[in-house]
C-alpha cells in the first residue's frame, strides 16, 4: 500500500483519538454498522481531499466498511493530525497522503496520489480534486460517477465552472452558499 505520512509510529495515539471521536459520532456509528452488513459501495474507489482529523477518519473508515477502496489526501495541511494519518494507514489500511504543514508541491503530489487509482467518486473540500481532474487529469472523468463538495469556496469554484459549461461530472454540494 502506498502512503505518505509524517511518522507511522504515531498510529497508536491516533487510534485512541479516532476511537474517542467515534464515541461522539453516534449516527455515523449506526450508518457504519449498516454499511458493514450491506456493503453498498463495494467495488467503488473513492478519492477524498478532506481535513485529516479524527472526525474525517471515522468517515473514511465508514466508507471503507461500506466496501469502498478509500484514498485520502489532506485538504488543508495545517489541520492535518499526523497521528490520525498514521492510524488510518497502519490500523485501517487506508492509503493516506497527509503531512501537517506540507508544502505546496507535496500537497499537489498528494492530490494526484489519491487520483492515481482512478476513483469513481470524489469527496472534496475546496474543489481541488475537481479542479485537478478538469485541468490535468481529464482522462479520469469517464470513470467518475460523481462527487461531493462541502465548502463555500468549493461551491463558488464549481458554480463558476458550471456557468462556463466546463463542469464534466455531477457534484453534490453539502455546503450552503448564498450565491446569486
Task: From the structure above, extract its key features.
Rossmann fold; 7 helices; 180 residues; 7 strands; alpha/beta
What does this 3D model show about the protein?
It is a single chain. The chain has helices at residues 11-23, 26-38, 54-65, 82-90, 104-115, 128-136, 152-163; strands at residues 4-5, 45-50, 69-74, 96-98, 121-124, 146-149, 171-173. The chain is globular and about 45 Å long. The protein is of the alpha/beta class and 180 residues long. Strands 1-4-3-2-5-6-7 form a seven-stranded parallel beta sheet, sandwiched between helices. It has a single domain (4-173), classed as Adenosylhomocysteinase-like (Rossmann fold), CATH 3.40.50. Helix 6 (128-136) links the parallel strand 5 and strand 6. It contains seven helices and seven strands, in the order E-H-H-E-H-E-H-E-H-E-H-E-H-E.
